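Internal QA ticket QA-208
Title: Verify multi-chain structure generation after dependency bump
Assignee: T.L.

Test input:
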Amino acid sequence: MIGLTSERITEELQSFSAKLAQGGQTLRDLGEIETGISPREAVYQEDKLTLYRYQPRVAQPHPVPLLIVYALVNRPYMMDLQEDRSMIRGLLDAGLDVYLIDWGYPDAADRELSLTDYIHRYIDHCVDALRERCGQDAINLLGVCQGGTLSLCFSSLYPEKIRNLVTMVTPVDFHTPDNLLTHLIRHVNVDLLVDTLGNLPGQLLNFTFLSLSPFRLAGQKYVDLTDILDDAQALRNFLRMEKWIFDSPDQAGEAFRQFAKDFFQQNKLIKGEVNIGDQWVNLGNIVMPVLNVYAAQDHLVPPAASKALASRCGSRDYTEFSFQGGHIGIYVSSRAQREVPPTVAAWLLAR
Amino acid sequence: MTDRNSTAEPGLFDVELLLKQARAYLAFGEQIRQFAEQSLDASSQPTDWDATLRQHFDRFKAAVAQSTEDSNIDPDLARLWTLTLESWQQTASSLGVSAIAPRAGQSADGWQAYQQVHGEYLELLRQSAVAALDLMEQRLRERVASGETAGSLRELFNLWVDCNEETYGRMLRGVEYSELSGRLLNTLLDCCARGESTS
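Actual output:
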């Protein structure tokens, strides 16, 4: 009555096993899997940080550089994954001069790095390097996810250095009812975690993200993979994403301690109670134009967590863009390529 | 100074992830195949089919519930619902905490406290997995009532995934899970910390 006979199911299982066996050869024959496709050059380095400039794709790029601050979690090549899935390429095509901070892989020597180091030292030094290099008093800043939160802190502390601020899928209010990450970290003894482990292991972060939807992310995804095992191109695309998912740097201990406690557990950002390097972060100081891009189906940073910026920042030129997709789709989906870079670029070029 | 960014070795993909889930899918398929066989005889009488469905899902639930303890049950069946636990155990192991016994230098008290919370965590996951089968049984009844049939085994597997995500998602968003998963990590860390201090 379910419409399937025992024989039909047996056939389907045999076909599945055959695809799996043949797929092994395709996997072996794939060769190198490249991630990050746009040519770039390193223009500044400090400790494990590297500031890259992407090769412009127009003769006269916009004179005000755009600095992308990615999250400390995962690796920034998600912004430039492959030819037809690259937010960076879209921004370059629109005529922008694009730079990106690659945080590298923190190790045991970095356990004492704090948010003060990341904001007052690393981001500030990169911003100054670009101001000097491009002869601009202020540059454009684009913060992604946690990098957006760091960018908000920086823009509040150094508003004179930022001409326009773009935040993408950025948490501002960490205590909206649908915030799963806050829900999961609420009862974690963060001090014990950092005091015991030093840095937060990337594997622990991976577990957290996979545990949000294990049957899809760790089960169904691999069963579905058998459907493309005979398609080298589709398989390459899959493996690029797979590499990114499991490429999780450890988090510098002290920076994680403050981020987890002040932002996730105590929601201090919207209360004006975050203190970084003896300076209070006041979102009201963010008076430059702001474009806040969020994803309507974001399961990690719910839209409400991002939209809280509207009533907290001091900008009179505040714009929101709602992308119809999720936290990952906003970088790599076809719709994202069509909508997000052109929207960001048009907004910036008008200012 | 121009570079072409990072390059991944194809070997970085853990083929075992694929193979493990493939085996779990085959175990799921075998469960459904048995049901299809049993329900063939009952197909002329709706009440017989109803009873067959209930009996089969009762057996399926019992097998799932016991699959982590009973070695006679196909271990790949357990993998269908212990994905989170398996991933957690790998993480714990990478931090030097074994699921089998305390390692040298780790206090037995700390390790036992962790094991107790680990058991509570497993039980919560088990309840969610069983609830997912209840939900799947209900969805199948609804399908039959509306004359819908499944076009393939994969369609039923996807239904099973949907049901698990639904019950797991409810569990994940609950206060109990938040408290328990926090306690799981805290006792694990306590175990690590004690190990460090006594080693």
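Spot checks passed. The beta strands of chain B are 2-3, 7-8.
Status: verified.
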